[in-house]
UniProtKB/TrEMBL annotation:
Protein name: 50S ribosomal protein L27
Keywords carried by this UniProt record: Membrane, Transmembrane, Transmembrane helix
Species of origin: Seonamhaeicola sediminis
Parts of the chain that traverse the membrane: 12-32, 44-65, 85-108, 120-140
Length: 144
């Protein structure tokens, strides 16, 4: 079961990154170009929200079924002294939860805006910051 969840988490991450990059670039380009907010923009931002939340749920399940979770009891307070354990047990989960929270906040805030410019700017800011956060804590050595 662990391997299935790990593979699902890893492959779903490609979808999350792909759609988050698309949503961020779309909002940035349309915002700077002064274009109108459309139904397509709404669908892209909503799909980004959905796939990122699914990834978060898969990640939470993986966190608790992973062999690495036992490092909390093995290392005790020394988890922060071990860079690999700190990445997998603290940094990666925390920063990605913050990233998904930023996506959620951006999506919620953009719905309350009345003009296209404000909607696109809100999505661009929150989704781009979330993208930077998520990219900063991906365990790249695990992927390649």
């Amino acid at each position: 079961m662990y391997e299935i969840i790990l593979n699902l988490h890893s492959y779903w991450a490609y979808l999350v990154l792909f759609i988050l990059i698309i949503a961020s670039l779309n909002a940035l380009i349309k915002s700077f170009a002064g274009k109108e907010y459309s139904a397509k923009d709404f669908r892209i931002s909503l799909f980004t929200l959905i796939v990122s939340h699914i990834q978060l749920l898969i990640g939470i399940i993986l966190y608790f079924v992973s062999e690495r979770f036992s490092l909390w009891s093995e290392l005790g307070g020394k988890v922060m002294g071990n860079s690999l354990a700190r990445l997998y047990l603290v940094e990666h989960p925390l920063v990605n939860i913050i990233g998904v929270a930023l996506i959620t906040i951006g999506y919620s805030k953009h719905k309350k805006k009345l003009t296209s410019k404000a909607k696109l700017r809100t999505i661009a800011i929150f989704y781009t910051i979330a993208l930077v956060f998520i990219l900063s804590r991906i365990p790249w050595q695990q992927w390649f």
